[in-house]
Each structure stands twice: as structure tokens, then as C-alpha cells.
Amino acid sequence: MTRLHIAIKARLDKAIREYRMLAEDDAVLVAVSGGADSMALLELLSLHAWTFAERIRLHAVYIDLGFGESDERCQLMETYFRQLRVQYKIVRTDIGPYAHSAANRERPCFLCSRLRRRKIFETAEELGCNKIAFGHHKDDIIETLLMNMIWGREISTMTPNLAVFQGKYHVLRPLAYVDEEMIKKFCRERRIPTIEQNCPTDGQSKRQFIKEWLAELESQVHGARENIFASMKRVKTDYLL
Q1: DSSP bridge partners of 91
Q2: Hey, which CATH number is domain 3-239, 3.30.70.270, 3.40.50.620, 3.30.70.20, 3.40.50.300?
Q3: What are phi and psi of 56, to 5 degrees?
């Protein structure tokens, strides 16, 4: 392994062990969107999941949102899944066009995300998976905290290991300690393919606004992003309303 691979694996190990994400006989569904984060997560788990539990089943699911060039995207994903020798399922939908149609009265990103997640849980049920792994990374967790504070009027974020549906499933985020930039470099180093969904509102979300704002803040206050992340483990409840 390269130095970068070793560094990412160390952070992956820390998150999985600290939050007790994997156990023997787990069936883990990795939700792959085609972006660098989830593609890197799938590759990392395909290489290293056995070090946490020898009797573990790994599945991948790709939910195609139905924008243009679906056939090409699905073919690329199938080729990559086979290259990694993981069991997989590709689900074709029209979620994207529907979320951006006149029939939708909600925000496109909100509805698209909700419907995609429903398909993921349906696939977990179908394949008998008890855990679902997403490619959300350290920067996603920081951005979500700020989004929830600014627009949601609450202090909350993504958690690395979340039990849902009365504990039937656990939602995992094994990349919780890995920076986004490290993941991008890892994908370039390993030549991991990535795909675009051709979404018409890509780059116009609240998350993109926060991402750009954080980049500007970091340029003026070195370490600001890291400090925000660290603060989530040092919450002084006595000093909150």
C-alpha cells in the first residue's frame, strides 16, 4: 500500500473500531452513487472488511437516477463491481427527472435523496443486509452540522453508526474520519472511475454553499474546519440554552 492508502486505512480502522460498525456474520450493503466518496469506500471495504470480521458479506447497490446516458453509467458501474468481485445490484429509476418535474412540489434535492434512500433500504431488505454503508466523509459531517444549525435550527449532524427502524438496520459511515481531499487523491492514485449523474441542479445546493463558505473561512482561519469537527466531541451542555 502507498502512504496515502495506509493513512486512509488507519482512519477507516479508527472509525470502524471506535463505533463498532462491523461484526461477524454482518451483511453490509454499500450504497454507491458513482462519486469518488462511495466508490473509494467500496474499494476500501472490498480490500479490508475481512480484517474486522472474517464472516462478512459485502454487497454493492447502485441506484441510477434516470438522467441522460443511463446505459453508459450502469455499464461502467457493472464493470467496476465485477472488477472488485463484489456481489451487486443495479436499480434503474426515473427519480431524477421526476424530482425536477412540475409534479414535484418539494425541493428537487430533498425528494431525490429521500426516494433514492428508500430504494436503498428496499434493496437491503431484498438482499438480507442488516447494515448499510454510505460514503459520507469528515467534510460531509462538518457541512451537515452547519446546514442543520443555519437552516434546520438545531445542533445535529450525521452519526457514524445509526440504528434505524427499531434497530433492524444500522447506517454506517466508515469514512467519518477521512477528509474529502484524501479521498479524491486516493481515487486518482488507484484510478478508481467516477461518474456524473448529469443532474440539472448539481452545484446549486445548500451543501455547495456551505462547502464554498468553509473553503473561504479556512483560507482566513487555518484549522477552522478541523476545529469545528473536534468541537462535536466537546459539547458543553451546561452552556447551551
Answers
A1: 63
A2: 3.40.50.620
A3: -135, 140
pTM: 0.92
Q: Is the dihedral of CA 8, 141, 206, 40 positive or negative?
A: positive
pLDDT, residue 200, reads 76
The dihedral built from the CA positions of residue 232, 237, 239 and 241, taken in this order, carries a sign that is positive
Give pLDDT tens digits for 117-141. 999 999 999 999 999 999 999 999 9
Tell me the Cα Rg of the chain.
18
Quick check: 37 and 175 in contact, CB under 8 A? yes
Q: What is the pLDDT of residues 144-203, one digit of tens each?
A: 999 999 999 999 999 999 999 999 999 999 999 999 999 999 999 999 999 887 777 777
Q: What is the predicted pLDDT for the residue at 102? A: 81
Q: Which amino acid would we find at residue 154? A: E
C-alpha closest to that of 196 among 40, 95, 86, 70: 70
Pick left, alpha or beta for residue 80 (phi over 0 → left; psi -120 to 50 → alpha; otherwise beta): alpha
Listed in sequence order, the residues at least 6 apart from 9 whose beta carbon sits closer than 8 Å to its beta carbon are 1, 44, 48
Domain layout of the chain by residue ranges: 3-239
